[in-house]
Amino acid sequence: MKVLKKIAILVLVLLVPGFLYYLLTAEGKNRYKPLPIYGPKIPAKTTHRIKGKDIPDTLYHTISDFNLTDQDGKPVSLKTFENKIFIANFFYTRCPTVCKLMNDNVSELATTYSKNKLVYFVSITVDPEYDTSPVLKSYAVGFKPLPPKWAFLTGDTTTIYNLARNGFLVNALQTGKDEFVYSEKLMLIDQAKHIRGYYSGGSTADMSKLNDEIKVLISEELRRKEKPLY
Q1: Using one digit for the tens of pLDDT, what is the confidence trace for 26-35?
Q2: Interior/surface letters 119-134, b for 16+ CB within 10 angstroms, e for the rest
Q3: Hey, which CATH number is domain 67-202, 3.40.718.10, 2.40.128.260, 3.40.30.10, 3.40.50.300?
């Protein structure tokens, strides 16, 4: 029975993304609404034609580049996630409550997608002066087994706080000794580095929604390779 159960789970993992892709492309029609793109939108000087009409192109907000360091002391930048989907969140290791719950939920998702080559996870500390790479590595050990594509990042406060505010469009700042204001949202980022969703890291319903929308985004990215969406 255990063998049959494992086979059934494997079949579902392999078939669900393909099934979603079929639904997205069946008869050349979108059966799902594409996920929204968050952030400022700027009209471009270029246009594209639809049914004989020139439609202005739109420049969408993208995540700005960054240079941070992971729990193993390795450099991480936006290029690390080239042609990848990634899910990001902010936290700090001395956080007494919500951070652990949020990262427990991230751990479950990261485990679910551990064998998917397209999907990565990033948790960025808002307390980099304390949360050095060795501290992050020790913290990461608490999530067993640690999913292979989940990075815990640190750096300097200027880089991290600017990335939060101007890149991910969320709050992150220090308000006092060992006191921080930061967003408990998880952000879904597509291959073009657009923000495609915000989800409460402590909400079971939002985690379920994020799981579903990761699958939709995977299918959307597969379709985009055939015909650009933006």
Answers
A1: 444 445 578 9
A2: bbbbbbbbbbeebbbe
A3: 3.40.30.10
